[in-house]
Amino acid sequence: MSAGRLIVWRHGRTEWNLHDKIQGQADIPLDTVGVAQARAAAARLASLAPTRLFASDLQRAASTAGELAALTGLKIEYDEALREIDVDDWAGLTMSELAAVNPEAATRIRSGEPQRRGSNGETVEEVADRFADALSRISAEGSSEDTIVIATHGLAARVGICLFLGIPQANWPAFGGLANCNWVSLLPGRSGWRIEEWNAGSLPEPVMSDDPQR
């Protein structure tokens, strides 16, 4: 069995997003704009009649999911595998500050080369593995009647979805980062899952994220 649709939904804005600070797994709350974004996006997603709701246990994703739960009555199912990439002691730095203290690491990130985040954090490949595994597990638990919404984080979602779909890593940079409270819609097909919408939910907006592609 497999779910009928997966909606992978990035959380609303935080103050650290606004100031271009690397968040990783630091438990930063939504700011007032982020709460409004989550409320507006939840109203649109509720129209899809979701049947299950999963979320990262970090409060910015959990609070985003909470707006949809309030509209639909769904219970939030928390999953640590849906957390953002672990950046360890880089949390709170801007990319400019990181470049000042560790220019080699910043250059490798911007060029898409392998780079462990922080002293003991994760690589992009590691977060993609755990996120893709979570998508496989969650989708397998569903039925063709299910629309499952997953409230999560930008970088983890982007690379995890790509791996889940079997997209070669060399092509991952072709998939742009997710703006705050935008989502990816995935549908099952004859030969596996496919993308219905990418970065949906609004007109194009700047991507303020732990996922620098610029």
UniProtKB/TrEMBL annotation:
Keywords: Hydrolase. The lineage of its organism: Bacteria, Bacillati, Actinomycetota, Actinomycetes, Propionibacteriales. The keyword Repeat does not apply. CDD domains: HP_PGM_like. This is Phosphoglycerate mutase.
